[in-house]
Amino acid sequence: MLEVRDIEAGYGSSQVLFGVTLSIRQGEVVTLLGRNGMGKTTTVRAIMGLNRISAGEISFNNQPLGRVAPYRAARAGIGLVPEGRQIFPTLNVRENLIATAANHRRAREPWSLQRIYQLFPRLAEREQHLGSNLSGGEQQMLAIGRALMTNPLLLILDEATEGLAPLIREEIWRCLELLKQQGESILIIDKNLDALMRISDRHYIMEKGRIVHQGDIQLLRDDPDLKYRYLGV
Ligand SMILES: Nc1ncnc2c1ncn2[C@@H]1O[C@H](COP(=O)(O)OP(=O)(O)O)[C@@H](O)[C@H]1O
Ligand SMILES: [Mg+2]
User: 34 CB less than 6 Å from ligand 1?
Assistant: First the structure.
């Protein structure tokens, strides 16, 4: 469904991506790995149309993206949980969830507030609290809930468990497992290899703006060399 072919992108005159190629098929959970500063977020920004690509192609369900306005990626059905969460601080939980709700894909069972609250009961308890008054974990749940409320065909999570306490982190992984079971297509950027092994079908590893390795994530587990070389673990 998502095809990224040989893209180059950067910030101003500094080039960050030097030919990134990756793809995601319907129903797959794919992981993008790599140390800090390797270009993972920039790749996501390019997919979302937030960074313009200077070479290559991006298409989603055979629609060209990459050189179109940012809203087109969301319209086409890509839901982003951005790095740093970026929820609306002056809206409460409920308002955050409905602010960008949409059903462009005409899902037969669209996400509703009730379904989000089922997934994250904590959000129901905090329904009237402002975004700025939530804990980091709650903000993260809200960011995921908000993305789901757009009924995305593809969900992208950029460091969704970063900086969270272990229990909250586990709650997020459980939710992602559930989404996988429901057949959602997901691109995950995260550093937690053990949790990724549970849900990821394939992985790509990025280094200095290039994909340097790809394959079955289970094989990565048994390759300490590779893990050390590209992930520093
Ligand atoms: N807004 C920005 N302006 C200029 N350079 C940036 C900006 N954001 C990221 N970079 C640079 O781009 C490179 C890749 O960053 P990023 O895509 O955020 O990496 P990752 O998500 O893998 O940690 C880094 O060298 C970073 O310093
Ligand atoms: Mg990043």
Answer: yes
